[in-house]
Amino acid sequence: MKICTASLAIIFACLFALSPTLAAEVDVRDDGTFVRDLADVVSDEQEAELERWLAELEQKTGAQLKALTVLTTGDEDIFAFAQRTAETWALGGRKEDDGVLIVLAVQDRKVRIQTGYGIEPILPDSWCGTQSRDVATRYFRSGDYSGGLTELSLRAANRIAKAKGVQLVGVPAPRHFAKQGGEKGNRFWSLIMLAVIFFIVMATRRRPPGSGPGSRGGWWIAPTSTWGGGGRSFGGGGGFGGGGSFGGGGGFGGGGGGASW
What we know:
Oligomer: single chain
CATH class of the domain at 35-165: Alpha Beta
Number of strands: 5
Distance between the termini: 56 Å
Radius of gyration: 24 Å
Order of helices and strands: HEHEHEEHHHE
CATH architecture of the domain at 35-165: Roll
Mean pLDDT: 77
Structural class: alpha/beta
Strand content: 5-15%
Helix content: 40-55%
Number of helices: 6
């Protein structure tokens, strides 16, 4: 009897020790809306406006952007939480991988923009980080979570629409735009790379046939891309129209950026 009691005590102790870990993972179901305000920090008016604007964005561009607020992501880092949730929701087109998930964790004081393969050239990691930090400073730090989430969503939506060559009706321009130094830096290094390639090509043309490395008659230069971001996957299969939609596709590679305050 004593052995049985001791065994039960050990089992309950183990379950008690494991219970915080088991409860730490926060799971959020995709209910088909564009805004899931589980932290209850977005005003009804702004939530309704975001629903209309993000539905129009998807209808006109195919890109699917959703916003999620939670009180906390638990013991899970916001990056891992956003990555896992985005994979579960499978936002964007199945082939285009053009999904975006914005996660705001109020008590953790963190925000994260998670992007996919197809949308990362439009919303590169540096841009996501810069805009997140700017909105966190202007809005979240003072407790304006509703205004901040709306502003960050508008910045992303307007940038996507502009890149796709469409105009969103009734969608206001963002109040502010953080200057993106990273894009200027990318253009600078792109010009440097093009100049290097140009001089290599000119130098190889002066060589006699067969004198360079490789096969007969000269050097071969592999095509190189210096624009956009790679290596990020964000799943697919979104619908169109108002009132929200469900995703239906693929994987994620961790693209995006965030901030804390």
